[in-house]
Write a structure and sequence with these properties.
single chain, SAM-dependent_MTases_sf, S-adenosyl-L-methionine, about 25% strand, seven-stranded mixed sheet, binds S-adenosylmethionine
């Protein structure tokens, strides 16, 4: 049987997301502002980052530059990342979502807190070497097959400042095999699979935590904080 990630098709994913409303409800698959998900998500992320603070001291003369990967309409930047970072860049390949960032991020843009917006897929994105204090990947890495994801992590490592951190916040399957979702052409990986891929990319897991307070019918969500091993 073929590996679940061999079914991933980038164009199918773009088509799927392009047809979804450019709203919080849209990017969260129907779990938008009428549900507990956006609020619990932000609370969980803030809590996770606060606990990591002593291990995320910026290197001398470094600004806290963040990058929001698979950013959708900029929800994570608007509601959470901007509170931790001086400036945030965003990576998002879906045109209507990138357009909506003008609205969602208007006041942050005006305040000079938004850096570059890269309107490309993460498989095509190479970060500027040594730029980032924090690279935040949330609910998007399932769009890359395993090999591409390891290659992406390797590029992200090069994009980190000294003492920079990568955070991955994703659904976990409890099954032994990854779950392929043909609607949005993505896979949901197990905790073990994530750990294997981090190791292959030379990333050390410095902290991990399960997101609390999400509806029971959803996949469990886990945050992983990672630093380069070398
Ligand atoms: C579930 S939404 C999450 C959006 C955002 N991270 C959030 O939490 O609000 C998944 C996002 O991944 C984006 N995406 C799909 N394929 C991608 C790719 N190859 N590279 C980067 N982002 C991708 C989609 O366009 C969509 O914005």
């Amino acid at each position: 049987m073929s590996k679940p990630d061999s079914n991933i098709n980038y164009e199918d994913a773009i088509d799927y997301w392009t047809a979804v409303p450019a709203t919080v409800d849209g990017v969260l698959g129907g779990y938008g502002e009428g549900t507990t998900v956006p609020v619990m998500d932000v609370l969980g992320s803030n809590h996770f980052l606060r606990k990591l603070k002593s291990r995320m001291i910026p290197a001398d003369n470094c600004q806290k530059i963040g990058c929001d990967i698979g950013a959708g309409i900029g929800r994570v930047t608007r509601d959470m990342l901007h509170k931790h970072c001086d400036v945030v860049d965003l990576v998002e390949p879906v045109v209507p979502f990138v357009k909506q960032m003008d609205v969602e991020l208007a006041s942050l843009k005006e305040a000079g807190r938004i850096g570059h917006i890269f309107d490309i897929g993460m498989q095509e994105w190479t970060p500027e070497a040594g730029r980032y204090w924090l690279i935040w990947c949330q609910w998007c890495v399932g769009h890359l097959p395993d090999e591409e994801l390891v290659a992406f992590f390797l590029r992200c490592k090069e994009g980190l400042q000294p003492n920079g951190t990568i955070v991955v916040k994703e659904n976990n399957t409890q099954a032994l095999e990854d779950d392929f979702d043909e609607d949005d052409s993505s896979v949901t990986r197990s905790d073990d699979k994530f750990k294997e891929l981090f190791q292959r990319a030379g990333l050390k897991l410095i902290a991990t935590e399960r997101q609390k307070g999400l509806p029971k019918e959803l996949y469990p969500v886990r945050m992983y904080a990672l630093k380069p091993l070398d």
